[in-house]
Each structure stands twice: as structure tokens, then as C-alpha cells.
Specification:
Shape: globular
CATH topology: Neuraminidase
Helix content: under 10%
CATH architecture: 6 Propeller
CATH superfamily: TolB, C-terminal domain
Distance between the termini: 20 Å
Radius of gyration: 18 Å
Strand order of the largest sheet: 1-24-23-22-21
Structural class: mainly beta
Order of helices and strands: EHEEEEEEEEEEEEEEEEEEEEEEEEEE
CATH class: Mainly Beta
Strand content: 35-45%
Bound molecules: magnesium ion
Largest sheet: 5 strands, antiparallel
Length: 312
């Protein structure tokens, strides 16, 4: 039977939940976990513990936990690029960096027109190699999650960076606090969360959806896709069927591509971010406040190119 780790709000979610499967806590003792990234080749996961300025590592082969990097430039969101390299948003470095195969750190982008970025928060890589990231102010608002500093850029934007050409392009400049982001499986849609309610009474706490044009770099739309019903949407990832698995105040909210909240994974701490991993990409890793959790689901994380059969 479906366990109480899953909350079914729409019959479509019943197929995504698994019988006899429970949420597992894999690690705890952190202060604010964020940015899980799974490395299939090594079968390990890294994540950020932002206030403690460290990155942690969980080994899927034996469950061991260790410090991956400390200090860690108060890193926040991470992803893995097509070459298997770690790409990181750094509050402290006010940049997006990449960890090369030999372990060295390369700052990819830190400035626009001579001004420092705010504090990159979350990042995804498109199959063309371009890096899309959000740049809210959380990492410069205080010394807790970075270094308190003035804004240099006039606003908090969504950006696209092309590491091949070095070009940085603003994708959207009308967000209050852009946060998590992800592409649909066919990379035709871009979803971006706005957590502006932290900075503005009645401010946004929703996800917006953009259409990406054939050039792979211009977008249109930007309408509200879904409103958060419990606290705020933060980071999220998308499965092969286009469902969004989104961090929220009471767990992971699953929204179907039509925007409907179809179910939840209940988590006892507020969720900051998630990623799919495991050898079949059907294990959802969840960074939630002090802890790292995981749960198997009947869904798999989208990969590029979209190469997995639909579960529908
Ligand atoms: Mg975030």
C-alpha cells in the first residue's frame, strides 16, 4: 500500500508513488542544506550546507558521509554538466564556478559590465552547454549565508551564460528574487521560481513558465505556472513526463505539466531543493533544512537528450 510518506491529491500522483516505500533520512546535523547533485559515475551525492560554509558528500555504495569541501565559498545550488563536471552557484564568490576533472575550480562568470553579480542561487545546464542561473540577493543580504555587501547589479535577474563564447545574457529582469529553475524534458520550456515574498509583503511565491524559441536563447511568456500553497517554492527538478518536483514548506510538491498540484512527498523539515539520482534516476534526493532525505518514486529525472521511455 501507498505509505504516509506520499500524499495523493490527484489520481495522477498515485502512479508516481510507490507502495511500501518510506522517506529515509540519510544525513543530518547541517544548518541549511541546499543544492543536491548526483554523480552517476561515482554513485555519490554532494550538497551545500550554506551557513556552515561547507559542502557534504554522501556515498551511495556504503552510506558514508564526509565533508566534500570546506570552506566552500558559501555555495548554494549545483548541477552536473554534460561532461560530468560540478557546476556551482557561490554566494561567497558571487559567481558560477565549475570544478574541473582534476579538481581545480574555475570561475565561469562573476561580473556583468564590470559589476559583480549578487549571489547566484541555482543553476541548470542545457544540452547545448549553456548555463542558466538565477541571481537573487540572499547571499549578500547578511553574513549568515555569505558576505553582507551592497548590490552592484540593478536587480535580481535570470541569466544565460555561454561558456564557449563567454557571453552573458539576461533572460528575465522582472523577478523580485529568482530562485530555483529547470527545463522541461524537451528543453522547450523554462520554469523559474520567484521567492520575492521574503523581501516584499505580498510578494511572489510562485513559479513562472517561459517558452524557449528555436534559437535556444530567446524566450517569451513568463506567465505564472503555479502558486505555492505552503510557505515558498525553492529549488525543483522535472521528471521525464514533465512533472515538477518542488521544494516547499511541508515537503516536496509535485505539479503536473498543466500546473495542478497532484501530490506531495511529506518531509518533516522545510525543503530547499531536490534532485533525481540513483542508477535508474528514480530516487529523489531532498535537501531539507538540517538534513538530507531520499525516497524512491515511480518517476525518473529528465536527462539530456531526452532518452528514456515515458512512464505514462
Ligand atoms: Mg534556491
Amino acid at each position: 500500500m501507498i505509505t504516509d510518506s506520499f500524499e495523493i491529491l490527484d489520481e495522477r500522483f498515485r502512479r508516481l508513488a510507490l507502495g511500501n516505500v518510506h522517506l529515509e533520512r540519510l544525513a543530518t546535523g547541517c544548518r541549511w542544506t541546499e543544492g543536491p547533485a548526483y554523480f552517476a559515475a561515482g554513485r555519490y551525492l554532494v550538497w551545500s550546507d550554506i551557513p556552515n560554509d561547507r559542502m557534504m558528500r554522501w556515498d551511495e555504495t556504503n552510506g558514508s558521509i564526509s565533508v566534500f569541501r570546506s570552506p566552500a565559498f558559501h555555495s548554494n545550488g549545483h548541477t552536473v554538466d554534460r561532461e560530468g563536471r560540478l557546476v556551482s552557484c557561490e554566494h561567497g564568490g558571487r559567481c558560477v564556478s565549475r570544478t574541473e576533472h582534476d579538481g581545480t575550480r574555475t570561475v565561469l562568470i562573476s561580473h556583468t559590465e564590470g559589476r559583480r553579480l549578487n549571489s547566484p542561487n541555482d543553476v541548470v545546464v542545457r544540452s547545448d552547454g549553456s548555463i542558466w542561473f538565477t541571481d537573487p540577493s540572499y547571499g549578500i543580504d547578511s553574513d549568515y549565508e555569505g558576505h553582507a555587501s551592497p548590490h552592484e547589479v540593478d536587480g535580481c535577474h535570470v541569466w544565460r551564460f555561454d561558456p564557449a563564447s563567454g557571453e552573458l545574457q539576461a533572460i528575465a529582469t522582472d523577478f523580485v528574487q529568482p530562485n530555483g529553475l529547470a527545463f522541461s524534458p524537451d528543453e522547450r520550456l523554462l520554469y523559474v521560481a520567484d521567492t520575492g515574498a521574503t523581501h516584499r509583503a505580498g510578494g511572489p511565491r510562485h513559479i513562472r513558465r517561459f517558452r524557449i524559441h528555436d534559437d535556444g536563447r530567446s524566450v517569451s511568456g513568463g506567465e505564472v505556472f503555479a502558486e505555492c500553497t505552503v510557505e515558498l517554492f525553492d529549488g525543483f527538478r522535472i521528471d521525464t513526463n514533465g512533472n515538477l518536483w518542488i521544494g516547499a514548506g511541508d515537503g516536496v510538491h509535485c505539479h503536473a505539466p498543466d500546473g495542478v498540484l497532484i501530490g506531495k512527498v511529506r518531509v518533516p523539515e522545510a525543503v530547499a531543493n531536490v534532485c533525481f539520482g540513483g542508477v535508474k534516476r528514480n530516487r529523489l534526493f531532498i535537501c531539507a533544512t538540517t538534513s538530507l532525505y531520499a525516497i524512491y518514486v515511480n518517476a525518473a529525472g529528465a536527462t539530456w537528450p531526452p532518452d528514456r521511455p515515458s512512464l505514462a
